[in-house]
Design goal:
Elements lengths: L2 H23 L5 H26 L5 H24 L5 H23 L8 H19 L4 H26 L1 H4 L1
Helix pairs in contact: 1-2, 1-3, 2-3, 2-5, 3-4, 3-5, 4-6, 5-6
Length: 176
């Protein structure tokens, strides 16, 4: 297993710790929410680090290509789910995110079955980064209604845009 993949696994193992700290915070600003914020930022930073190592050290692997985006999805969806449980992130927004993730994953599976690999697009990276930053802001100010709606809007817009971009650029994979 490559160093990059090991770092990605650290992100996966941090997810239950982030969720546990959020749970203990009971949705309020304070020690446990700040611990969850620290762990979430640490996990988010591993996304950048593992990618840099994979590219610079020629450690790009099929396992890494599979695990890295899965780890990102699990991390962000876990935090959105906690906010949804507290009534601070709308369930319909979480459903849009989940639908996009399943649809793009399905598109990638169809493409791979036809011998085509769909690389992560720029808009997908923007979606992930803006989601991570927005969720951090929600952890710092967990009860700020205006901020929550702003973050939700950014997450939905980047999610829908990047999902549409994947399908527009790769629609031929579905019909060939």
């Amino acid at each position: 297993m490559t160093t990059a993949s090991k770092i990605t696994l650290v992100r996966v193992f941090l997810i239950p710790l982030v969720m546990a700290a959020m749970y203990l915070s009971r949705g309020n600003a304070g020690l446990w929410m700040y611990i969850s914020l620290f762990l979430f930022i640490l996990a988010s930073i591993t996304d950048y680090i593992d990618g840099q190592i994979a590219r610079k050290c020629n450690q790009v692997s099929d396992f890494g290509k599979f695990l890295d985006p899965l780890a990102d999805k699990l991390l962000t969806i876990a935090v959105m789910t906690m906010f949804c449980e507290w009534g601070r992130f709308p369930a319909w927004a979480l459903m849009i995110v989940l639908t996009r993730e399943f649809a793009v994953t399905g598109l990638r599976l169809v493409a791979v079955g036809k011998g085509t690999v769909i690389a992560a697009g720029w808009s997908g990276k923007v979606k992930t980064a803006s989601t991570m930053v927005g969720l951090c802001a929600m952890m710092v100010f967990p009860q700020n209604g205006i901020l929550i709606w702003l973050v939700t809007a950014v997450i939905i817009l980047t999610t829908v845009y990047s999902g549409a971009e994947y399908f527009i650029q790769n629609w031929k994979c579905l019909w060939e």
